[in-house]
Amino acid sequence: MKITSVRPWLIKSDASYWGEYLFVEVTTDEGVSGWGEITTTTRLANRALCTILRQIGVAMTGEDPARIEYLWHKIFRSFTYMGSRGAAVECVSAIDIALWDIRGKVLGKPIYELLGGPVRDEIALYTHPNQAKFTSKDAVVREILDIVESGHTGLKFDPFPHQGRTADGLAREQRDGYLDGSMTRKDEREAAELTALIRETAGPDVDILIDAHGRFDVPTAIRLCRSLEEAGQIDWFEEPCPPESLNALKQVREKVSAAISWGERGHTKWDFVPVLENRLADYIMPDVTWTGGITELKKISALCEAYYIPVSPHDAAGPINVVAGAQVMMTVPNFYKLETSEWNLGKYDHLIDRPLDVSNGSLKLTAKPGLGVEMNRDYLQAHEIELS
Fold first, then answer.
1. Which parts of the sequence belong to the Mandelate racemase/muconate lactonizing enzyme C-terminal domain (predicted)?
2. Which residue has the higher pLDDT, 163 or 85?
3. Could you say which of 66, 163, 208, 258 would form a disulfide bridge with 237 (CB–CB 3.0 to 4.6 Å)?
4. For the domain 3-108+376-383, what is the CATH superfamily, name and number?
């Protein structure tokens, strides 16, 4: 069996936070194909990745798709003088997932059976409220109660108001962006009030997880975390500072009581070594579509196991992200929960051949080969974004 093509599918979809998904299909000369995903947070990044993927596809044509480890390193090392991070690793991730999908289909086994077999029957999830619905206190309460009643025992949100625009009309920050790392006292109070309301509504048995999206400088992150600790008995504070500086993370870590979560913007196992060695995080949350795929997520999980640190894969994208992370976590002893971008995953139904089996806050994987889902090719073709 030989690889014949690597094809990016950039798809318009209202189900995405950003209005589009980026899937990757690897095809072979025997008619078996596999699916990966690489959705990022900006249109610019998605389009740049499409270009890189096409070039990688040329280099992979004729290769044996069963040589997953070899192909991982072949792509990764091709970008070594660019640092082998960022876009390079994200392309590796998508292709790696697709290769595991192919391998499972060829052998007639789900991927988790190829990674050592399951250590659990289902995957516990944590999820997000739809904050667009937070138009009043009553609306917040309704949304949180819906999540709790669905059986989820963990929910995550970003309580911090975005800072609007500067005097010249330019955006002061983007959702995952950073400008000066500050937060006004008024907005700090609003964040604390929202967190307290959500804790009161969810009750004491639901984990409350705070996502700062790496937006704050050191003193602001410390101040905000302490404020939320007091307001809502939070269970983790995620990405308090931009991920480029582990020294900033260390300073925050030393001054707050809440557990620290880190890792969605960590690329490969090598990025996680100093975090673990220096005890900078209580939870590690790699994204299978960004950190190096199934191959690397399994290795990162084993690395964390040696430090007795739980793994909780990140997700803010499409169905391949969810099921790929779940396939690995079926085999990982030190697993906390898998993130899903919304609590009702019916939003993916139009993208895949069967709905994901979610009940009582957990995902059950099928015994079908590979990832266990197929993309809806008719939908992809009808909603593909054409690139010049």
1. 137-259
2. 85
3. 258
4. Enolase-like, N-terminal domain (3.30.390.10)
